[in-house]
Amino acid sequence: MDNPYSTITFGDLVGKLGRVRIGCAKCGRRGQYRLAVLIGKYGRDKKLFAWIDELTADCPHKKNPRSPCDARCPDLPE
Fold first, then answer.
1. What confidence tens digit (pLDDT) does each residue in 34-58 have?
2. What is the structure's pLDDT at 68?
3. What is the domain extent for residue 58?
4. Residue 3: inside a domain
């Protein structure tokens, strides 16, 4: 299955979102991050998918193929 965020960069979100919210229904992880801070730290070209993967590296569902991590950005379309 393709990740819906695989080609989106932080730069793509400029003017569309001020904050990037993320949540996982399986582990209950929730958070929000200011887009300007993310761009300052990672750059405009950082892929959203790569950032989510790094952010959720310690998720207990990350390595479970039967119940994989379900971290998503609810403000973005699937």
1. 999 999 999 999 999 899 888 888 8
2. 78
3. 10-72
4. no
Q: Count of domains in the chain?
A: 1
């959203």: which residue's tokens? 48
Cα 62 to Cα 16, 50, 58, 73, distances in angstroms: 29, 14, 7, 17
pLDDT, tens digit (0-9, with 9 covering 90-100), for 55-71: 888 887 777 778 777 78
Report the alpha-carbon distance of residue 64 to residue 68 in Å, rounded.
5
Q: What is the pLDDT of residue 2?
A: 54
Tokens of 59: 């998720």
User: How far from the centroid of its chain's Cα atoms is residue 33's Cα?
Assistant: 10
Residue 5, domain member (yes or no) = no
Q: In the chain, what's the furthest Cα-to-Cα distance? A: 37
The Cα–Cα gap between 29 and 62 comes to 13
